[in-house]
Design a protein that fits this description.
about 300 residues, alpha/beta, Rossmann fold, 8-stranded mixed β-sheet, 9 helices, 8 strands, hydrolase activity, Carboxymethylenebutenolidase, Dienelactone_hydrolase-like
């Protein structure tokens, strides 16, 4: 039996990207001080920083089947029953970029929650310094437990005044896969937005069905954002997912960005492509408005 860590397509896309110049990147110590994880690689100095004015933000303690799951939330002040948007993180844990995305969503009027669903095995993933250490932790997360954790997060948001009849989910990298998985699981989800979520999984008994295999079971419309230059997710696999959804008469849309690598929305990494990131963010908002998540 191989002891090599399971290299999923999102990880291949993360690790095989275009070369970058060290200029314009924070030092490692500055990156960690700013709330980023070293396993995420070099961090750009000009990351997007969303302030908390007009928002309530903080740490969440979410009751799950076997204890309490940490999380981070942001919601607009003075809004009764805001819609709820789950934020599914990359493999790097609940670090500053994911927290910033929750604040961006709150500025759009959503009660956004990012659950830290890897807390059981690895503690705080933002403290881990390299990808080989992370992989056994994130690859051993069973889908059944993941989906249960997300359901628990929805219940928590509802208990805090969120309107879960207007439920959305957004995810990046491994979290993009989570969006597809959750769209096949949740009967209450209104819409999802998946950023470069792998359509196909490597063999893993803890992940019974890949997003493509789940095409017949999709319960909510999902928009998928992919980079044509993603070294881990071949365009052919995106096309196959698209075809499977169409064959099963499921509502989905795909945006493929020419020249964009994996992680093109991740404004803290060398893979960031502003034009693709801005366009995808605008399309996500339009999708969530169309399907009744955002007002």
């Amino acid at each position: 039996m191989s002891t090599e860590p399971l290299l999923t397509s999102d990880v291949i896309g993360l690790t095989k990207v275009a070369p970058f110049s060290r200029r314009g990147f924070m030092t490692a110590s500055a990156a960690v001080a700013a709330g980023y994880t070293l396993a995420a690689g070099p961090v750009r100095a000009d990351v997007i920083k969303t302030d908390t004015s007009g928002l309530t933000t903080g740490d969440a303690k979410i009751k799950v089947a076997d204890g309490e799951m940490p999380g981070y939330f942001a919601k607009p002040d003075g809004v009764r029953n805001p819609p709820v948007v789950l934020v599914a993180m990359e493999i790097f844990g609940l670090h500053e970029y994911i927290k910033d995305v929750t604040r961006r969503l709150a500025k759009l009027g959503a009660f956004a929650v990012a659950p830290d669903y890897y807390f059981r095995k690895g503690g705080d993933l933002t403290k881990i310094t390299d990808i080989p250490q992370l992989l056994p932790i994130v690859n051993s997360k069973p889908d059944a437990e993941l989906l249960s954790d997300l359901d628990s997060t929805v219940a928590w948001a509802k208990s805090q005044g969120g309107d879960t009849s207007r439920l959305g989910i957004i995810g990046f990298c491994r979290g993009g896969r989570t969006v597809w998985e959750y769209a096949a699981h949740s009967p209450t989800l209104k819409a999802g937005a998946a950023f470069y979520g792998p359509p196909v999984d490597p063999p893993n008994p803890l992940w019974p069905k890949s997003p493509t295999q789940l095409a017949p079971e999709m319960k909510a419309p999902v928009i998928g954002f992919y980079g044509e230059a993603d070294t881990g997710i071949p365009v052919a696999t995106v096309e196959a997912l698209k075809a499977a959804l169409a064959e099963n008469k499921k509502t989905a849309e795909f945006k493929l960005y020419p020249g964009a690598p994996h992680g093109f929305h991740a404004d803290y990494r060398a893979s960031y492509r502003k034009e693709a990131a801005d366009d995808a963010w605008a399309n996500m908002q339009a999708w969530f408005k169309k399907y009744g998540v955002l007002g």
